[in-house]
């Protein structure tokens, strides 16, 4: 019986996850379409709210479809309390759960990830701090950008 359930559930879950991923891509594309100051200015107004609510909900939904249910105990720190949010050891796809639960903060990511089809658009909508491994000044530039965002008094989302 469990084999039969697996044969039915696996394709159903895969189809649902692909559908959720395409909805996330569409939402990210709409929110960043014709964005003024793309990447240099923070998302404002409806664009920022759309990313925070839609992508957060879709990410939670995707994890639920995969069989994960996450409960938060305590209170998530607000942007004013913690402009930088540290998640460790950040070694797997479970980091997306933290992003969804904290309102889709900006992340630090490899610059190469931004050019990945579908995922790159979604990642770009989070306004990441891009790290280039080919640039010798990348580490210094990354620290400077994180500091600039942390001191922006709420203009930029939290950085994780």
UniProtKB/TrEMBL annotation:
Q: Does the keyword Acyltransferase apply?
A: yes
Q: Which family does it belong to?
A: Belongs to the 1-acyl-sn-glycerol-3-phosphate acyltransferase family.
Full protein name: PCAT2 acyltransferase
Per the record, its GO cellular-component terms are: endoplasmic reticulum; membrane
Q: Name one Pfam family in it.
A: Acyltransferase
Main localization of the protein described in the UniProt heading: membrane
**Gene Ontology MF term list:** 1-acylglycerophosphocholine O-acyltransferase activity; lysophosphatidic acid acyltransferase activity
Question: Which gene holds the coding sequence for this protein?
Answer: Lpcat2
Give the organism, scientific name.
Acrocephalus arundinaceus
Subcellular compartments: Membrane
Provide the alphabetized UniProt keywords: Acyltransferase, Lipid metabolism, Membrane, Transferase, Transmembrane, Transmembrane helix
* Keyword Nucleotide-binding annotated: no
Q: Where are the transmembrane segments?
A: 7-28
Extent of the signal sequence: none
Give the domain of life: Eukaryota
Sequence ranges assigned to domain Phospholipid/glycerol acyltransferase in this UniProt record: 70-156
**PANTHER family this protein is in?**
LYSOPHOSPHATIDYLCHOLINE ACYLTRANSFERASE 2, PHOSPHOLIPID ACYLTRANSFERASE
Q: Name one GO biological process term.
A: lipid metabolic process
């Amino acid at each position: 019986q469990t084999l039969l359930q697996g044969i039915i559930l696996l394709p159903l879950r895969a189809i649902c996850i692909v559908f959720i991923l395409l909805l996330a891509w569409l939402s990210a594309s709409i929110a960043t379409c014709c964005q003024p100051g793309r990447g240099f200015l923070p998302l404002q107004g409806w664009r920022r709210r759309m990313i925070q609510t839609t992508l957060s909900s879709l990410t939670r939904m995707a994890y639920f479809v995969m069989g994960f249910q996450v409960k938060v105990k305590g209170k998530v720190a607000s942007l004013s309390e913690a402009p930088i949010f540290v998640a460790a050891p950040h070694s797997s796809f479970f980091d997306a759960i933290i992003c969804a639960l904290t309102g889709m903060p900006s992340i630090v990511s490899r610059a190469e990830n931004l050019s990945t089809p579908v995922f790159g658009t979604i990642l770009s909508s989070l306004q990441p701090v891009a790290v280039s491994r080919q640039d010798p000044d990348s580490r210094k530039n990354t620290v400077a950008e994180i500091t600039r965002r942390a001191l922006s008094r709420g203009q930029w989302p939290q950085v994780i």
